Amino acid sequence: MSKAVVVLSGGMDSTTLLWDILNSGKYAEVLALSVNYGQRHSKELDLAAKTCEKLGVSHKIVDMASIGSSLLAGSSLTSGIDVPEGHYEEESMKSTVVPNRNMILLSLAIGYAVSSDAKAVFYGAHAGDHAIYPDCRKEFVEAMKAVTKLCDWKEVELEAPYVDSDKGDIVEIGKQLQVDYSLTWTCYKGNEKACGKCGACGERILAFDKAGIPDPIDYVKSWEEVLADAKLMVANGPEKK
Amino acid sequence: MSKAVVVLSGGMDSTTLLWDILNSGKYAEVLALSVNYGQRHSKELDLAAKTCEKLGVSHKIVDMASIGSSLLAGSSLTSGIDVPEGHYEEESMKSTVVPNRNMILLSLAIGYAVSSDAKAVFYGAHAGDHAIYPDCRKEFVEAMKAVTKLCDWKEVELEAPYVDSDKGDIVEIGKQLQVDYSLTWTCYKGNEKACGKCGACGERILAFDKAGIPDPIDYVKSWEEVLADAKLMVANGPEKK
Predict the structure, then answer these.
(1) Selection from B56, B69, B139, B127 nearest residue B99 by Cα
(2) Would an 8 Å CB–CB cutoff place A58 in contact with chain B?
(3) Structural domains in chain B, sorted by start
């Protein structure tokens, strides 16, 4: 049995993926890798660490915080620009994209896999992100798989098992695995309670609703209220500019 | 006219490339990007800065030094392992490979291009490195070009104009452009004078010999002596283990 590296953001997708891979029993050791690329808040990274502690998984956090502000300027997730509220598909949400974030994360994870003799790198790209994040699309994932095979003598495979799933499917998997979702964070804002209003919250809320389980994290409003807001956001569709 | 990003190591290939792109007059602005990934010495980076100063080019150095030691362990270029002497093709030279270095550098350069509205990323991969660095091979470059096209809405092209050239061809180009090769460093060791014995020195020495110009940097021995050594290294071929 070989080792695997999992790119772990501390969000619900990659956290489910980590539980999923451990549960599969296919790997002798699973190594989690998180990257601090200068996010506005470290809530996700703190929760990623707690999940790894709970699961007894080795966890590395790479500090690239200075790069977020200097090299990859222009994203509201790494700069002083206000995080937009509203539907994911709105034009304004494009400002949440960190330029080339996934290729950067994956290139580091692949380097880590090579240096630690792991044979696979897992990441939680999924269908829900497609519209707004080019580097979550299947075409990108397939192209990354191809380049991963060529980057070293050692064979490393890139795996993105959720690439055809949506967030609701992922919570469905997590439900079976009894994933502790209280140790995940999705809201773009780093407040004590999730805002329930940003695109990320909206998608998360609807995913839990689809899977038929309550979201264990705290929102600023009651579950019923944030669920109603999220459904309204989808019904209204993206704002036309 | 658009902007271009050049991955600049401070070695002779990427320095020639920078001069070459500036000389082409095709870009309104050329941005140089260097990465400190925890190299054993900063000589190349210091020289990259001097070249940019001389050419009036904006230069960013990304500091990822901690990653070299923590994440990408196992390479003699970033750890305490002795740098091997001798021919490039020897098995021992594999320890000079930083796991997935080029994909990491390129992913950062592409992110920088996206955030600074540059349309092209240039890097100096060339045929001479193929045997020992998988991520300098044409197949890798082609696969990286494909993934680069997919990573963002903004169109960024990856360009590696020297991928079919060897180091001798590159010095030939530099000779025409009157590149200041005194501001480049190739030796794996960071001493005051180049050792003339490592694989990197050997290849550089033979490249200058092929182009018929003297190498302006200082070696521990005379040019005639290091040239004779380099020719002998090639004649003997890689040591069989």
Answers:
(1) B69
(2) no
(3) 3-85+100-186 (3.40.50.620)
